[in-house]
Amino acid sequence: MPFKIPRFTSQGIDSRSSHLYANIVASFVAKGWSAVIVLLMVPLTLKCLGAYQNGVWLTVSSMLVWIDQMDIGLGNGLRNKLAAHIAHDEWQEARKVVSSTMAMLVCIIVPLMLILLLLIGNTDINRLLNVRPDEIPELRMALTCAVILVCITLVLKFIGNVYMGLQQPAVSNLLLALGQTLALIATWLLYITGHATFLNVVAVNTAAPILAFLPAYPYTFYWRYPMLKPSIKMVDLHAAIDLANLGLKFFWLQIAAILQFMTANILISQFFTPEMVTPYQIAYRYLSLVMVVFTIICMPFWNATTDAYERGDIMWIRQADRKMTRMTIFMGALLVVMVVVSPSVYQLWIGDDCEVPMGMTVMMALYIFLMVISLRYSFFLNGISALRLQLYMTITTVIYIPLAWYVSSTTHDILWFMAVMSLCVAPGCLANMIQFHKILNGKAKGIWKR
User: Fold this and answer.
1) Helix axes 414-440, 314-340, angle to 10 degrees
2) Which end of the chain has less neighbouring CB within 10 Å, N or C?
3) Can you tell me the mean pLDDT for 377-394?
4) What angle do CA 437, 442, 448 make, to 5 degrees?
5) What is the pLDDT of residue 69?
């Protein structure tokens, strides 16, 4: 029997909250396991590839994140539109949105993949990444393989956004965790069999998510939610345009986030050395566990907020806001503890394979805390599609790279580079906080409006 889609009535504060808490608990299990995998993967890939090749792989993986964002925000647009249509029992419109999203993704990703493959074939990849050709002779082939597999994953990954729109982010998290598990197992097999070349490590890590999402498609649309099954006949031009308008706003926010952090690996490799990427990423992966936990809690609030706002249930949003404030304070305290015990954790985790300076850990903790504060409000704002001011605040991305270049070339110190990252995030945190409270209190005017 297909599962029922949750419905919340005007008296549904308790039912909405119960459904949200159930997803938070389930997401903790899935995301908790994902966090364990990330911790295990760091020393494993380091042993497979060594510090130099591992730094290059981390840089390549950060570049692949750019491709992962090339859905032009359709995934986030889908989850908002789907949640809104379901709140009003508009099932026909909901199926149109799902069908239109998949059709648009295929139309975007296929040309994108061909363009990227053409660029890889005609670009000096080694010079671009500051990599010595004799160290990784198969770099071009690895990038070609990675681009093809990541593009396929990007189309299939919209299934996770469908579950988010259905207020079931735990299922999306489970699919991602399954892909990571397969990647860990495959990488470990490469290590113990002596086949852990750079090309093989890249291939298994980019192919694993496809194996998780492929069976999820028939399970989702032919058994669990057949009323949402994508169909060419249900592709609607007006729905697609509406979805694209919202999606493009999310897309620019995603690109801004990439520019402010995901390009850091490439910039560090250029400004300093590829080896420096490894301790930087170790500090990030350790302290970002706080952001993982916080995201697990925040993610269900996104579309629960959409549902509550569509139904005029402001009381529920106020209650959720108070809970989020307490959780933010707790996350700040947790970061302080993690910084204090970090030397012991690094020693236990990676041993003497890599040294992570305390200053780098402190600066990363500051950056993560600012991200937590920003997420604490942006998940609510995203849920009601209040994106305009967030788009204005991405102006900080314009100064990020030139400022990072100037500071790095002047000081030759990666800590100042990390300080620039935090500086560029801070204004957005403040703007999100002010806008949220203005909207909640009915005082939003001008640029503060939804």
Assistant:
1) 160
2) N
3) 77
4) 60
5) 61
Both tokens of 205, joined, read 């890590």
Distance CA 231, CA 418 (A): 47
Query: Is 400 exposed, middle or buried (CB count within 10 Å of its CB: 0-12, 13-18, 19+)?
Result: buried
Structure-block tokens of residue 32: 């908790």
Q: Sign of torsion, CA 341 429 61 78?
A: positive
Report d(CA 5, CA 171) in Å as an integer.
13
* Contact predicate 408/417, CB 8 Å: yes
> What separation in angstroms does the CA of 340 have from each of 162, 286, 346?
40, 13, 12
What span, in angstroms and rounded, lies between the C-alpha atoms of 423 and 398?
Answer: 13
CA angle 355, 424, 331 (to 5 degrees): 65
Measured CA to CA, the distance from residue 58 to residue 60 in angstroms comes to: 5
Tokens found for residue 348:
């236990």
Segments in 194-313 forming alpha helices (H): 198-218, 237-257, 264-271, 277-310
Q: Are 417 and 112 in contact (CB under 8 A)?
A: no
Residue 252 sits at φ, ψ, to 5 deg, of -65, -35
Contact between residue 248 and residue 325 where contact means Cβ atoms under 8 Å apart? no
Q: For residues 311 and 307, what is the distance between their CA atoms, to the nearest angstrom? A: 6
Is the pLDDT at 11 greater than 60, yes or no?
no
Phi/psi for 341 (5° steps) reads: -95, 5
Beta-carbon contacts of residue 369 (< 8 Å; ≥ 6 apart): 331, 332, 335
**pLDDT tier for residue 20 given thresholds of 50, 70 and 90:** low
The secondary structure of residue 343, as a DSSP letter, is H
**54 CB burial (10 A radius; 0-12, 13-18, 19+):** buried
Give me the pLDDT at residue 148, please.
Answer: 92
Structure tokens at 354: 């890599």
Q: What pLDDT sits at residue 34?
A: 83
Q: Angle, to 10 degrees, between the axis of helix 74-87 and the axis of helix 237-257?
A: 130
pLDDT exceeding 70 applies to what percent of the chain?
88
